[in-house]
Amino acid sequence: MRILLIEDTVALGEAIREQIADDGHAVDWVTLLKEARACVLTTRYDLILLDLMLPDGRGLDFLQQQRGAGNSTPIIILTALDQITDRINGLNAGADDYLVKPFDLNELSARLAAVARRYHGNPNPVLNICGLEVDLVSHSVHKNGQMLDLTSREWAVFEALLQRPGTLLSKAQLEDYLYEFGAEIESNTIEVYVSRLRKRLGREVIETVRGMGYRLALS
Q: 84-92 and 59-68 helices cross at what angle (nearest 10)?
């Protein structure tokens, strides 16, 4: 997923960014709400992680503004505010989940995956598609009873296609899904990952529309 992290505590921000990058997600990390507003105007995010207490304002105001503007991107609140009223206010404002600091980073990964599944219509963590058994929690794929060894980037490309079966995704869209702002991207990176996936999963799993992009086969 492409994730926006809004967190002003440097040590925590670095730990979260490292955790979710290791999970195969692209992370844009900002420390101010004005930076966050600029990001959501220019980039489509799959999920937002939002601290409630930022140097230039309240995360709750940002949340309400985004929902009021029609932004339905999943938002998980990360905060030290642990009163029941704080949780209720956050959820009523449109948050999809609420994690109180300090929290376990593995729990954060699990909640990210759970929220993403709900939004993409796959509440079941195990899918059967194109003759493959795909576990969205463990990021594992089995074919004919054998587990296939995918790297985090290969999984990320596959997950992007999984979330939109039958939908054509351009090379630029896949790059946006995989890489944060400022990342250096080789011109043939996506082609390389797609080629590797086809070798592991089967050539029929990912279709190419020449000059336009890639999509996951529906059968």
A: 20
Of the candidates 205, 125, 117, 123, the residue with the CA atom closest to the CA atom of residue 165: 205
Question: Position of tokens 């009873």?
Answer: 145
The DSSP call for residue 31 is S
Helix 171-178 / helix 189-201 crossing angle, nearest 10 deg: 90
Cα separation of 216 and 207, whole Å? 6
CB atoms within 10 A of CB 94: 16
pLDDT tens per residue, range 116-147: 777 665 556 677 887 888 887 778 899 888 89
pTM, full prediction: 0.67
Question: What is the tens place of the pLDDT at every residue in 7-54?
Answer: 999 999 999 999 988 888 889 999 999 999 999 998 889 899 999 999
C-alpha dihedral sign at 55, 60, 64, 66: positive
Burial of 197 (0-12, 13-18, 19+ CB in 10 A): buried
Contacts of 105 (CB under 8 A, 6+ apart): 15, 16, 19
Please report which residue ranges of the chain form alpha helices under DSSP H: 10-22, 33-42, 59-68, 84-92, 105-119, 152-162, 171-178, 189-201
Query: Can you read off the two tokens belonging to residue 218?
Result: 């529906």
Phi, psi angles (nearest 5°) of residue 198:
-65, -40
